[in-house]
Amino acid sequence: MKIALIGYGKMGRMIEQTAISRGHEIVSIIDVNNQDDFDKSAFSSADVAIEFTSPMAAYGNYLKAFKHHVKVVSGSTGWMKDHGDDVKRLCNEEGNTLFWASNFSIGVAIFSAVNRYLAKIMNNFPQYNVTMEETHHVHKLDAPSGTAISLAEEIIENLDRKNGWVKGLQVHADGTRTGSNETTADKLPIASIRRDEVPGIHTVSYDSEADSITITHDAHNRKGFALGAVLAAEYTATHTGLLTTSDLFKF
Ligand SMILES: NC(=O)C1=CN([C@@H]2O[C@H](COP(=O)(O)OP(=O)(O)OC[C@H]3O[C@@H](n4cnc5c(N)ncnc54)[C@H](OP(=O)(O)O)[C@@H]3O)[C@@H](O)[C@H]2O)C=CC1
Ligand SMILES: O=C(O)C1=N[C@H](C(=O)O)C[C@H](O)C1
């Protein structure tokens, strides 16, 4: 398969290695300094473009790829609030294809299934208070992480006593702390911690006076994200519309 890369940072480089190891060809690599390459035939020849850039750049990149009828797999986070509705329309009504996931690792797909099941069970146990914490490297631009927002949305969908999430304690890259994890009855607080080079840790906790139940996904490196993105590209080559990990990982 011919793959174009949009964004050649930590993820773009790891995806390049993973894609080549699975027998794919990288036909174009677009970063900040060679945006003209979107208009070159090498880019248009790609079966799929894999996009990992930033919250600010992602939506513009989708538009440029769609203009050239190139399908996109993207893991960029933090753009959904501003552009989610437009992207749904572009894919569901205008024939474009985007496979987007806040987290491409199989481990988080499994974690997400446990998260949904646990939230359902907890409807019967009001004595447990739910909170979430995510920890990432100090370079991360968005908070809460895209994964934390997806996990929070799953809890809200399945746990009747929560109807939204709020930002909780923020530990910033320089170590300063703002906000707090104080909980209200109907909102789920998400704490965000920025520390060292942590690839990504997500924890959901249910605490009662008697005990705590805690589930954690701890990414040891970025290999799981990269493999998931390449598997998603292989899937996207033969599917259309707005796609996500529940289309790819079925269990
Ligand atoms: N869904 C998932 O599984 C995962 C998602 N992510 C998300 O992916 C995104 C990227 O992560 P990561 O690779 O670690 O970040 P990096 O900062 O390491 O890489 C991003 C790259 O994109 C480049 N870039 C910025 N704007 C554009 C643009 N308009 N066109 C092309 N390239 C551009 C940056 O260039 P420059 O440095 O010059 O600005 C940089 O080289 C983040 O939003 C992150 O949250 C990360 C890991 C897993
Ligand atoms: O920025 C990152 O690094 C990551 N971003 C994604 C997110 O926002 O959830 C996925 C992963 O946790 C790494």
Automatic annotation (TrEMBL):
Keywords: Amino-acid biosynthesis, Diaminopimelate biosynthesis, Lysine biosynthesis, NAD, NADP, Oxidoreductase. SUPFAM superfamilies: Glyceraldehyde-3-phosphate dehydrogenase-like, C-terminal domain (SSF55347), NAD(P)-binding Rossmann-fold domains (SSF51735). One of its GO terms (cellular component) is cytosol. Residues 1-104 form the Dihydrodipicolinate reductase N-terminal domain. It catalyses: (S)-2,3,4,5-tetrahydrodipicolinate + NADP(+) + H2O = (2S,4S)-4-hydroxy-2,3,4,5-tetrahydrodipicolinate + NADPH + H(+); (S)-2,3,4,5-tetrahydrodipicolinate + NAD(+) + H2O = (2S,4S)-4-hydroxy-2,3,4,5-tetrahydrodipicolinate + NADH + H(+). The keyword Thylakoid does not apply. One of its GO terms (molecular function) is 4-hydroxy-tetrahydrodipicolinate reductase. Pathway: Amino-acid biosynthesis; L-lysine biosynthesis via DAP pathway; (S)-tetrahydrodipicolinate from L-aspartate: step 4/4. It comes from the Bacteria. Its EC number is 1.17.1.8. Residues 107-248 form the Dihydrodipicolinate reductase C-terminal domain. One of its GO terms (biological process) is diaminopimelate biosynthetic process. Belongs to the DapB family. This is 4-hydroxy-tetrahydrodipicolinate reductase. The lineage of its organism: Bacteria, Pseudomonadati, Bacteroidota, Bacteroidia, Bacteroidales. The gene is dapB.
